[in-house]
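task queued by scheduler; priority normal; single chain, no ligands, no partner chains; default sampling; output format set to structure tokens
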Amino acid sequence: MPTQEKIDRVAELKDKLERSSIIISTGYSGMNANQMVDLRRRMLDGGVEFVVVKNNLLSRAADAADIPQLKDVISGQTAIALGYDDAAVTAKAVNQAAQASAGVLAVHGAVIGQDAAMQPEEVSRLADLPPRPILVALLLGTMQSPLYGLATVLTGTIRSLAYVLQARMDQLQPADAAE
């Protein structure tokens, strides 16, 4: 029989899972309390909420939040990193923390929205992406390039026609008028 405390914890986790843009499952075996406090502080500075959870409570919260694919990346001692804004920024913060912890923190996988669970390699690739503003700028530059080229070609053709007409007008003018 579940206790009221566990029911409340599942409801709280469900709310966090529903609000998050990315959920990264990590393993933290071998980490002492001081390392955990330092890790949480570093994650919080990166805008990431880092929560240690029991697997069965997380599994129930995932079912309640309609994110069953999260259960595919839960194993061993589990802590989840919840990002509420940009998924790439969250993945970058977790990836940097995993590298700084010298193998103590291991990424098991991630879930973004209703998509299939991501493997650790995919989370690492997501962390390597540039920030969202840079991606938007690259996209806009790519979209503007053909339009700029078309405008250049069209104005070049009109400019060439104007030069030809001006040269012909200069040829037709009497030599006395030019002086």
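post-processing summary
- The mean pLDDT is 87.
- The domain at 4-129 is CATH 3.30.70.1730 (Alpha-Beta Plaits).
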